[in-house]
Design goal:
Number of helices: 0
Shape: globular
Strand content: over 45%
Radius of gyration: 13 Å
Number of strands: 11
Largest sheet: 7 strands, mixed
Distance between the termini: 40 Å
Helix content: under 10%
Order of helices and strands: EEEEEEEEEEE
Length: about 120
C-alpha cells in the first residue's frame, strides 16, 4: 500500500518562505512521477509543480514559476516543494501526489496516490 505523508505547512507572512516535504512509502518511489497540488476553500484543486522520476523533467504552474522549486531524492523517498516570496493567494491545503507512469503532468486525474495534505496560510 502506497502512502504519502506531507509536512512543513504553517502560517507565514507575505514574502516569507516554507519548505514542504512528502515522504512516500510502500511503493517504487524512484519510478513515480510526483506532483504538488493545492486547494483553497471553495475552489478546485489546482496544479502547482511536478517532477519526473529522474528529476530532469520539471513543470510549474505559471502562478508559482520563479518562486517555487520542486525537487526529489530517490534514496530518501522524498519530494520537496521550496516556496519563496509567498503571497496570500498561495494559501491552501497542499497535497503531494504520485503517478506510477512516465511523464510529468499537471492534471489531477493523472495521479493515482495522494497524501492527506498540509495547510499553508500566508497572511498579508
Amino acid at each position: 500500500q502506497v502512502q504519502l505523508v506531507e509536512s512543513g505547512g504553517g502560517l507565514v507572512q507575505a514574502g516569507g518562505h516554507l519548505r514542504l516535504s512528502c515522504v512516500v512509502s510502500g511503493g517504487a518511489f524512484d519510478m513515480y512521477g510526483m506532483g504538488w497540488f493545492r486547494q483553497a476553500p471553495g475552489k478546485e484543486r489546482e496544479f502547482v509543480a511536478a517532477i519526473g522520476w529522474s528529476a530532469e523533467n520539471l513543470l510549474y504552474a505559471a502562478s508559482v514559476k520563479g518562486r517555487f522549486t520542486i525537487s526529489r531524492d530517490n534514496a530518501k523517498n522524498t519530494v520537496w516543494l521550496q516556496m519563496n516570496s509567498l503571497k496570500p493567494e498561495d494559501t491552501g491545503n497542499y497535497y503531494c501526489a504520485a503517478r506510477d507512469a512516465p511523464g510529468t503532468f499537471g492534471i489531477v486525474s493523472y495521479y493515482k496516490f495522494w497524501g492527506q495534505g498540509t495547510q499553508v496560510t500566508v497572511s498579508s
